[in-house]
Amino acid sequence: TLYRRWLTAAGFSNIYFFGFSSWNQNFPDLVKKLEELIVRVKERLPDRPPILIGHSLGGLLARACVQSTGESFHLSGVITLGTPHQGSKLAALGVGKLAKSLIYRGPLIKELEQGAPRADTPCVALHSPVDNMVLPNHSLQIAMAGWIHQETAPVSHVAMLYHKRTAELTIDYLKSMRDVTH
């Protein structure tokens, strides 16, 4: 809700949300559903390749989309917030297959490491130095060419969604991605 308000105030008018339940879901099905939403958005706005912003698991879904898409599925960029790019040791305590699939350096992470975004798609990983959900903290970073890493103010994992300065940093990156593609 706050991001919608902050994005609108910054001049962004075509804002779509991808909500999902992490119960009884698996990662490939969620990626497919997100890709279907992206296709619908692109049909409505064919001259504006979307920019994906994802927090935590949403960031991994955005990463999967930018890595798996072909020429006809171009994105203007991806910004992840507090995303466990290398998984999290806390995922071992999660309930359900989806949560457990996010285990630190597990099979899902190794599969994601096989892909790469298009060279012309800017990708940014925003992460807090005190994230309390993604452990170890270095697993917030992605060891892949083409990604920019930016440390935020020291805020908790969930607080990234409510922290105005993190939102302002996200908006700055959004504007730079929008300006490059338009």
What's a quick, concise take on this entry?
With 182 residues, the chain is of the alpha/beta class. It has helices spanning 2-9, 27-44, 57-68, 97-100, 107-112, 164-181, and strands spanning 51-55, 77-81, 123-127, 147-151. The chain has a 4-stranded parallel β-sheet with strand order 1-2-3-4, sandwiched between helices.
Overall description:
- The structure is a single chain.
- This protein has 182 residues and is α/β, with parallel strands linked by helices.
- Helix 2 (27-44) crosses helix 3 (57-68).
- The protein is globular, with a radius of gyration of 15 Å.
- It contains six helices and four strands; from the N terminus they run ααβαβααββα.
- A four-stranded parallel sheet has the order 1-2-3-4, sandwiched between helices.
- Strand 1, helix 3 and strand 2 (77-81) form a beta-alpha-beta unit.
Mean pLDDT: 93
The run of helices and strands is: HHEHEHHEEH
Rg is 15 Å
User: How large is the share of residues in beta strands?
Assistant: 5-15%
Structural class: alpha/beta
SS elements, strand count:
4
Q: List low-confidence stretches.
A: none
**Rough shape?**
globular
C-alpha end-to-end distance: 27 Å
